[in-house]
Design brief:
By secondary structure, the protein is an alpha+beta fold. The chain is built from 13 helices and six strands. Among the domains are: 130 residues; 81 residues, Threonyl-tRNA Synthetase, Chain A, domain 2, CATH 3.30.980; 66 residues, no CATH class. The strands form two sheets. The chain has a four-stranded antiparallel beta sheet with strand order 1-2-4-3, covered by helices on one side. α4 packs antiparallel against α5. The longest helix is centred in the middle third of the chain and has 46 residues.
């Protein structure tokens, strides 16, 4: 037995490298963007290594090598948290379908010829052509997130505009040739028909052409379709970095002991499982014995407030805490903690919210940011006593919108 213990103590644990998901996504996106950049640079074929990359990929995809850098770029950016249009998964999937359809339709490279031959062996040439054309339309629908009807209408509008432009160009050329011939005829008539005899009628005074007022002042348009300037969001450096003082919660351990003792004196077995430090209140999550009625705990609200000597003489019991098998007892802090707006705007929860109408309201009982969308509460009423923070709440909502949304 002693030998076994000695050998176990001398063994070395296997090497394990654990990386967070964000780091793995970053490495993968960097690698995909790097591959796309190398393919794009290899088109110049200025070095032997680039020539090798170009020849290998060109043999596989032919002219479709021009689409590969965009596909790798969209795949790499898709793994990031950027909210650009190119980072959406539909752009990558649609581009991949477009690459497969075009390579098969034009039989570009070994890959395209293999796709074409596989389809021809199944549904002949006409069927393969129709399938690949349908693939091109499907890829456009996926990329632009539209329908086939919208694509056909767009093609029809484009064709109508081209016909109108062609018609207007023909009309302009005909009118220009007609004016040129008419002006030549008039000059010839004057040269041959003008008599040297003096005219008995008085010469008519030539009419002055009306003056055209040309305004040099640019017209300012505020219509929705007018071209607007690029909106620059205000920087976070405008906000103060100073943090308010920490909240005065008193002796947390002593308060937990008082809660357990008070409940036990009334015949309720309970234990403080955790303490959540909020900016305005401190929540004590209580675990009670099975079979205990919640009404017995809620009826002891005033007794608990008296035993804890609550600063405002009141406490709040949340029985139970939503989503948990615990009872929450919230005691107001003796002094509040000031939550700066800059801290809320820098939170990951607000940055990852897609809605432009999302606003920050502060921190909850457990110290987590509270983010809400004012689009879901059009009839909200901000009420409260004097000095409770109504104006601060309204100013916070306006400031959050200015930092997240443009005037449009």
């Amino acid at each position: 037995m002693s030998k076994r213990h000695s050998t176990k103590g001398k063994r070395k644990q296997a090497f394990r490298l654990k990386l967070p998901k964000e780091t793995i996504y970053t490495l993968a996106s960097t690698g995909l963007i790097l591959i796309g950049g190398l393919i794009m640079v290899s088109l110049s074929r200025q070095r032997p290594f680039l020539e090798l990359i170009y020849s290998y990929i060109y043999n596989l995809f032919g002219w479709a090598i021009l689409l590969l850098p965009f596909i790798f770029l969209s795949a790499g950016l898709m793994l990031t948290r950027l909210k650009w249009r190119i980072t959406k998964p539909n752009v990558f999937v649609g581009s991949l379908v477009l690459l497969l359809s075009f390579t098969g339709l034009t039989r570009a490279g070994l890959f395209g010829r293999q796709i074409w031959q596989s389809l021809v062996s199944l549904i002949f040439s006409a069927g393969a052509f129709l399938v690949l054309i349908a693939g091109v339309f499907i890829s456009l629908v996926i990329i632009f997130e539209t329908s086939l009807e919208d694509i056909l209408l767009m093609v029809q509008k484009t064709w109508t505009k081209l016909k109108n432009i062609k018609t207007s160009l023909k009309f302009k050329t005909k009118s220009a040739s007609f004016d040129h011939s008419r002006s030549g005829f008039t000059v010839k008539g004057l040269d041959t028909d003008v008599d040297s005899r003096p005219s008995l009628q008085p010469a008519a005074t030539p009419k002055k052409p009306p003056l055209k007022v040309v305004s040099t002042v640019p017209v300012i348009s505020n219509t929705p379709g007018a071209q607007q300037e690029i909106w620059h969001y205000p920087p976070l450096s405008l906000l103060s970095d100073t943090h308010g003082g920490k909240a005065d919660r008193g002796d947390v351990k002593q308060s937990a002991a008082i809660i357990e003792t008070t409940l036990e004196s009334f015949g309720i077995k309970a234990r403080v499982a955790e303490v959540n430090n909020g900016p305005a209140v401190t929540q004590y999550a209580i675990e009670i014995a099975s079979g205990t009625r919640l009404s017995k705990i809620t009826s002891l609200q005033n007794n608990l407030a008296l035993a804890l000597a609550a600063p405002q003489g009141q406490i709040r019991i949340e029985a139970p805490i939503p989503g948990r098998s615990l009872v929450g007892l919230e005691i107001p802090n003796r002094s509040l903690e000031i939550v700066p707006l800059k801290k809320m705007l820098e939170s990951k929860l607000l940055k990852n919210t897609d809605s432009r109408l999302a606003v920050a309201l502060g921190l909850d009982v457990s110290g987590q940011p509270i983010i809400t969308d004012i689009d879901r509460m059009p009839h909200v009423l901000i009420a409260g006593a004097t000095g409770s923070g109504k104006s601060v709440c309204i100013n916070t909502i306006i400031a959050t919108l200015l930092y997240r949304a443009s005037p449009q």
